[in-house]
What we know:
2 strands, mainly alpha
Amino acid sequence: MAEIERRARDYGLPPLRWPDPWPSHYLLAMRATTVAFRAGVGKRFALEAFRLAFTEGRDLALPTNVREAGRRAGLDADRLEADATDPTVKLALREATDAAHARGVFGVPTLAVDGALFWGDDRLDDAAAALRRTRAA
């Protein structure tokens, strides 16, 4: 955790506040992210959720915090929570997870560049370099 905090400082990010407990159970948050992507605000929702978790120290296992991330992303919190329980959302998340596992993803963050997987925030520079090489070719 100290190494992650150091890298965050090096990237110029705000100080980390780890949610308590950490880690926790984030199934609702993952389903809500699926809903947000379907609504066209997935990146915004994910950013707001991560800000809540790691700059405010709020546990994304709690529906209140997931709802707040949705509000901050411009979603109706009631609808977000209800839609996150929809069987099609559950299936979409399960299929995305299975596809990631089939590709070789086993943790986060994982970035794929030209078929190569880069796992861990300590590999972001390597992934960026691979992307630059791919774009230059």
